[in-house]
Design brief:
CATH architecture of chain A: 3-Layer(aba) Sandwich
Largest interface: A-B, 88 and 88 residues
Low-confidence stretches of chain A: none
Distance between the termini of chain A: 35 Å
Number of helices of chain A: 12
Strand order of the largest sheet of chain A: 1-7-6-5-4-2-3
Oligomer: homodimer
Radius of gyration of chain A: 21 Å
Number of domains of chain A: 1
Strand content of chain A: 5-15%
Structural class of chain A: alpha/beta
Shape of chain A: globular
CATH topology of chain A: Aspartate Aminotransferase, domain 2
Order of helices and strands of chain A: HHHEHEEHEHEHEEHHHEEHH
Largest sheet of chain A: 7 strands, mixed
CATH class of chain A: Alpha Beta
Chain lengths: 353, 353
């Protein structure tokens, strides 16, 4: 007799990126050369100085690099993160408000576990990071996607947000800036309006900012500064300094919510990976290396964006909003495909075979 | 207006190890020298060859070490794990049945998420690994601790298990072998009896075996072999090869449950840390280094155990069961304290100040 499973796990779906990876692999097997453009996979490894520091530390005959750490990350790292936030965004956050977690995914999971209850409504932009879509059903909440129109540069539609919030079921508004996959950086006016809604109605703003050091035009708005009691900020070290596989990130917000998020993070992973904590600590503490590295990878990704845009402009019928940040261009290829005699839907479906 | 939290998070407690760590720190600050004996913190780092391989790889100017990996871990590692299980336990497990996860804690969390529903009863030995106690309430289940008597070497009481199971509410039996903190290695007879109960009543056996290569006397029983459709085995690379902070482990069981556990693991951490995957792959593939390392750390820990036991025997009124595996001695110090005029409870409470 085989024992039954938990029904809630049935709500979980494979991440869309995983599905895309399988499609790409499948096409390659059929001899079709595919360049994978959809995932947020960085192309710049961490600074050499930092990697060599770690290489040296690996020679030591001690448990220093390998031991368990406190669940919210070790204090020195949380202090370095607080300093980094102060330095880059001029915002004061104390180490007690920061929870170091096992990557962006754990930041999202621990945060949603902490704030969402079954039946809550969660507002998301449409389009936005698709990783939310396969995880949120696990929490038994209702997703409310609100179109962020391409013709307005994918800025959130504040009036539409208000209209949903007035129904009184909203628990959280999820915002990504710079956004994946639109490349949109939120404008201060829209951010302020959403912050005000959150404060007025007692909502959480989950502000997901893994690309905050990857902005080509415009500024990164601190949502925390606009609504410190209502904002939970999520960050991952995946893109900067470029260790997506190593799984390290942090969450910050009011100390009380940070404490609860830390308990979920502890329940799910005990502590964030120590080796990644040491690497990032070395990176953040060496301010010169830190600043030089940001300038370097920004130049690399800006160049890639410009090449991409230039090439896309050469194709008739492709329209897109020029990304101001992150590492994506979201292009509408419908008319271009139609001009070549393809229907969009069968075309997409054939990719999914 | 500050938004509310999820009630389920209220069920989470700080891990007892964290609390113990704070006590130790507190006592050290008061100038009291404390040797921390309670945590499963290994003292032997990974083999030098393996660490130097990683140090070398860190010099590369590529994203190889840093990229995202498939959520259940990369295939080559799962193949190496299957080979290792075959080699050490003579059990056939396919890579599709193995999910590499972010450490033992994530193995436990992903497994419990997958199999437990609110109201289920979960049988635990008493005493056993206390990490379960602060996490299980999150799943809204009923814990049924069954005394594993010290006078029987902490072997499970099979009749007591049967009695609970007959009530018809049990979903899972959790067994740790070698056990933390008792050092008990489960006997084949008891393991077989529990496997039979699980099969007859359609229950899961969650078989937690992070110390399976750390046995001084006796043999490691494969629960999976006894009940392949009902067993979920959990392993962590924390003690062997000694990377607790790096967070890597695996789960194996029927392919269908492995697939579901992988979805929870993905939702919580996206993928297990790539750097730890590379280190462990290098370790497991180099069979000579692997075998030499097991012999080495077993000798180190066996010696420590023997010193500990020898010293404990010198103290009047201390009784304990000689551990056959893991890295703990669970000693009853009640009579020894009483002989010195201390009451046990106030003594323990004074440590918790």
């Amino acid at each position: 007799m085989i024992p039954p499973y938990n029904k809630r796990v049935e709500a979980l779906r494979e991440s869309p990126t995983r599905a895309i990876n399988r499609i790409v692999e499948h096409m390659r097997k059929r001899g079709i050369d595919v360049i994978m453009l959809s995932a947020g996979e960085p192309g710049v490894p961490p600074p050499k100085e930092v990697r060599l520091w770690l290489a040296k530390a690996l020679e030591e005959e001690s448990m220093r690099l390998y031991s368990y750490t406190p669940s919210p990350g070790f204090l020195e790292l949380r202090e370095a993160i607080a300093m980094d936030i102060k330095d880059l965004e001029n915002v004061d956050v104390s180490p007690e408000q920061i929870v170091v977690v096992t990557g962006g995914q754990n930041a999202i999971f621990s945060t949603f576990s902490t704030i969402l209850s079954p039946g809550d409504e969660v507002i998301l932009m449409d389009p936005t990071y698709f990783g939310y879509l396969n995880m949120l059903p696990y929490f038994d909440v209702k997703l409310v996607p609100l179109v962020a129109p391409p013709e307005r540069g994918f800025q959130p539609d504040v009036e539409a947000v208000k209209e949903v919030v007035r129904r009184g079921k909203t628990k959280a508004i999820v915002l990504v800036s710079p956004d994946n996959p639109t490349g949109r950086v939120i404008e201060r006016g829209a951010a302020k309006a959403i912050a005000d809604i959150a404060v007025d109605y007692g909502l959480w703003v989950v502000y997901d900012e893994p690309y905050k050091t990857l902005i080509y035009e415009g500024e990164h708005v601190s949502m925390y500064e606009l609504a410190p009691e209502n904002t939970i900020s999520l960050y991952a070290f995946s893109k900067d300094p470029g260790i997506p596989g190593w799984r390290l990130g942090y969450v910050y917000g009011p100390a009380e919510v940070a404490k609860r998020i830390a308990l979920v993070a502890e329940a799910t992973t005990y502590n964030p990976p120590s080796v990644a904590q040491y690497l990032v600590l070395t990176y953040l503490k060496n301010r010169e290396v830190r600043k030089r590295h940001i300038e370097y990878f920004k130049a690399v990704y800006a160049h890639r964006r410009d090449v991409m845009i230039e090439e896309l402009r050469k194709i008739d019928g492709i329209s897109f909003h020029k990304p101001q940040g992150s590492m994506f261009v979201l292009a509408d290829v419908k008319r271009a495909l139609q001009a070549k005699g393809y229907d969009v839907l069968p075309c997409v479906e054939s990719l999914l075979v």
